[in-house]
Amino acid sequence: MMTTNWLIHLTTFIDQYLPPLLAGCGIGLFFFATLWITVHKGLKSGNPALWFVLGMLVRTGISLSLFYILAAGDWQRLLISLCGFIVGRQLVHKLIQRMSGEQRVMSGVHHAP
Question: Whole-model pTM?
Answer without folding.
Answer: 0.79
